[in-house]
């Protein structure tokens, strides 16, 4: 079962929606994806509340920078590329773009918000979307 993330037309797996979906919606009300001010780094409270579910889904904090990373492994290149295409289209909707690296069936992703110098709600949103895409394209 999936849940639509209405503000930008994204679909999240139900388990992930239960963990962070309602928090993403409340963040939308206070900080729209596109604002003149730009995103701000997550507060300590937001970091705990929003990053913990991602860390439980195999995202890792990056040593030496305020970023998260994850490595996805797929059956073959076609699945990996389908995942990247899906993620890229959604990244455009979110106006946020990943650092990533692909070799055959593996896609390594690092997320951080360069404009604010660290993790922001944009990274949490994109990580959630990428996990949903990976589930759709059968990541191992």
Describe the fold and architecture.
The protein has 140 residues and is α+β, with helices and mostly antiparallel strands. It has one domain: 2-Layer Sandwich (Gyrase A, domain 2). The chain is globular. It starts with a strand and ends with a helix. The N terminus is likely disordered.
Can I get a quick summary?
This protein has 140 residues and is of the alpha+beta class. Helices cover 46% and strands 19% of the residues. The chain contains 4 helices and 6 strands, in the order E-E-H-H-E-E-H-E-E-H.
The profile of the biggest β sheet is: 4 strands, antiparallel
CATH C-level label? Alpha Beta
In CATH terms, what is the architecture?
2-Layer Sandwich
What share of the residues lie within helices? 40-55%
Write down the overall geometry: globular
Give a count of the beta strands, DSSP E runs of length 2 or more.
6
Mean pLDDT across every amino acid position: 79
Give me the CATH fold name: Gyrase A, domain 2
Q: How many separate structural domains?
A: 1
Strands in their spatial order, largest beta sheet: 3-4-6-5
Number of helical elements: 4
Unreliable stretches, pLDDT < 50, 5 or more residues? 1-10, 28-35
- How much beta, percentage-wise? 15-25%
Q: What structural category arises from helix and sheet content?
A: alpha+beta
Let me know the CATH homologous superfamily. Transcriptional coactivator/pterin dehydratase
- End-to-end separation in angstroms reads 19 Å
Order of helices and strands: EEHHEEHEEH
CA radius of gyration is 14 Å
């Amino acid at each position: 079962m999936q849940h639509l993330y209405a503000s930008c037309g994204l679909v999240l797996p139900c388990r992930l929606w239960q963990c962070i979906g309602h928090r993403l919606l409340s963040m939308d009300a206070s900080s729209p994806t596109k604002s003149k001010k730009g995103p701000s780094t997550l507060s300590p409270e937001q970091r705990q509340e929003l990053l913990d579910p991602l860390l439980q889904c195999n995202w890792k904090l990056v040593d030496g920078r305020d970023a998260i990373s994850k490595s996805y492994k797929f059956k073959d290149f076609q699945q990996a590329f389908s995942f990247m295409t899906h993620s890229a289209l959604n990244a455009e909707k979110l106006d946020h773009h990943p650092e990533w690296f692909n070799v055959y069936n593996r896609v390594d992703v690092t997320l951080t918000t360069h404009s604010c110098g660290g993790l922001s709600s944009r990274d949490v949103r994109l990580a959630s979307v990428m996990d949903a895409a990976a589930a759709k394209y059968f990541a191992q």
